[in-house]
Amino acid sequence: MAVSGAEGGIKNVSSKGNGLLLYHHHYSFYSQKVVMALNEKKLSFESHLVNLAKGEQYQSWFININPRGEVPVLTDGVKVIPDSGRIIDYLEDNFSNGDTPRLIPLDLGPEVRQKVTQFRNTFELIPAGAITMGSFLHPEFIQNPRLPFIQPIRRLLLAAEKSNSGNLRELAENNPEAREILLRRAENQDAKHAALENKEEFKKVLRQVDVVLNNVEKELSLQSEDKANHWLCCERFTVADVSLTILLDRLARLGLATYFWGADKKPCLKQYYHRVQLRDSYKKTVPSTLLNLKMLFMMKAPLYIGIGAVTIAFVAIGGVFLFKKSK
């Protein structure tokens, strides 16, 4: 059950099941990892959506939960666990009994466990934010982007990103309890944007991703016919598969699928991505078209993206949706 945010504090939530409460956003790359892990482990949890477009992650009520002003954050009773990697480790350590499967297998031998860990750590090094914003700055690499990263949303997000450091500095002046964090974020934002505007720097990022995906293709190609239903590291879906799935989906939605695995490139990877989209955990994690529309309608705070621009985008995407439904 989604719980709306509060301006001055956290609303009381009547938790169900195991009492897990996840603060996240549907479009957050790292939030999606945790949501998919929760779904793979078949864990029930409460969902508190943090409106990133409105800047809720920098409001005092959320800074009190996570001083870094980042989603996702998981709470389990009085315990507060930030960072997607730490959250997944916490779930593995505390919820891996009975009907709750492990995402890091302990019974398949050290070789499998080492492979899972190696791929997971490799995926963690990929700068998802730089890829996302770099694709907006250099559209010549993009073909057929998908919701939510279609025009005019790409233009809106790029405009918001360009003004974000200024907005962060303004927020810093109005929120003294988060001033240091916000100013540091503003400085980092300026540095990252300056680097990403350089096409050659963005190409370096793409090459880094391509090296990783080539290694994935090699690993998948080594699987024999009797292992056709195996996943990346073994017959079980692991934490490495969670990270790979969310990475592939982000690349595809940005319009980078053709660049990385189009035509005859990486056929095993292409088949893997097709298979993983059939999993229930994927379907429960990745926003549907209707949810995309709902979430974009929520992006209405003038602080980050103007209400008029979002209304235009909402109508435009709604038109695309209606067109597809009428075909």
From TrEMBL:
Keyword flag Kinase: no
Gene3D superfamilies for the chain: 1.20.1050.10, Glutaredoxin (3.40.30.10)
Annotated GO biological process: mitochondrial fission; mitochondrial fusion; protein targeting to mitochondrion
Positions of the GST C-terminal domain: 109-303
PROSITE patterns: GST_CTER, GST_NTER
Coiled coil region boundaries: none
This protein's UniProt keywords: Membrane, Transmembrane, Transmembrane helix
Record InterPro entries: Glutathione-S-Trfase_C-like, Glutathione-S-Trfase_C_sf, Glutathione_S-Trfase_N, GST_C, Thioredoxin-like_sf
GO CC annotation terms, alphabetical: mitochondrial outer membrane
Record's keyword annotation contains Cytoplasm: no
Residue ranges of the TM segments: 303-323
Domain GST N-terminal: 18-99
Family stated for the protein in its record: Belongs to the GST superfamily.
PANTHER family: GDAP1, ISOFORM A
Name listed for the protein in its UniProt record: Ganglioside-induced differentiation-associated protein 1
Natural source organism: Timema bartmani
Lineage, opening ranks: Eukaryota, Metazoa, Ecdysozoa, Arthropoda, Hexapoda
